[in-house]
Amino acid sequence: MKFRLKAFGVHLLCSALALSLVLGVLDRGWYHWPGWYLTESIHLALVMVAVDVVLGPLVTLLIANPRKPRRELVRDIAIIVTVQLVALSYGTTTLWNGRPLYYAFSVNCLEVVQAYDIEPAAASDARKQKLELAPHWYSLPRWIWAPFPQDPQAADRVFQGLMQGGYDIVGLPQYYKTWQEGAAELRNHLQKVSDVRFFSPKQHALLQQRVQAAGFATDQANTIPLTGRGSSLLAVMDPGTLKLLAIIKAS
Fold it and tell me: Which domain holds residue 199?
């Protein structure tokens, strides 16, 4: 039993270190709040934990028999580690391809823009043109404004592409503008908590309580929804400076 526990402990430590490194880098770089929540990627991260930190070491605990020939034991553990590495690689690649790159104000709300939300050709062109807000592999999340183009023909092309299953305006970096450029437009779309769409009456009541508890006014236009693949959040902003003050859950 001592041999089994030692093998289990070593395997658990190595697996935990490898996974902690991967998830730690992704969290500090791209998925920190509200990234995990809006992308719903926490579910994939939990599966990675289950496979790499729980299942792998447990199987090692079961098969680590000191009476088993050393060559056979090494083979069995190598198979387990290979399966873990495949799962880790798949999970890491999926999280990397879906990492949050922008938090964009577009039309009437804020939304998270993940790497795979961006049209590859448009991203490549934006890099070639050396646009300030072009996405790069090393880009960290940025707050931007993604308005529809003022040129009617360009706007129609974007709309027609979207209707045909193409990319939304937030996926076309050539139209990105700085957060400061969208300040006036964003200010016009701030609302009181009770007037914000995207939430049910029950969620509105809970948001009212949480906004008040956080020390912010609920009787002035200072909020806007923040959306993603998961449940929407409520962003509380300073109406004057448009500084982000808080991001509040509705559940």
Answer: 190-251
Residue finishing a domain among 45, 78, 97: 97
Of 63, 129, 40, 56, nearest in space to 88 by CA:
56
* Domain identity same for 153 and 85: no
Query: Model's pTM, two decimal places?
Result: 0.90
For the chain, the domain total comes to 3
Q: Give the side-chain half-sphere CA count within 13 A for 178.
A: 4
Would you give the distance in Å from CA 248 to the centre of its chain? Answer: 16
Query: Can you give the pLDDT at residue 6?
Result: 87
Split the chain (251 residues) into runs of 10 and give each run's mean pLDDT.
Answer: 84 93 97 96 94 88 81 88 93 97 95 96 96 96 94 86 87 96 95 91 94 94 94 94 94 87
Write the burial class of residue 100 (CB in 10 Å: 0-12 exposed, 13-18 middle, 19+ buried): buried
Count CB-CB contacts under 10 A for residue 76.
17
| pLDDT score of 2 | 81
Same domain, 198 and 183: no
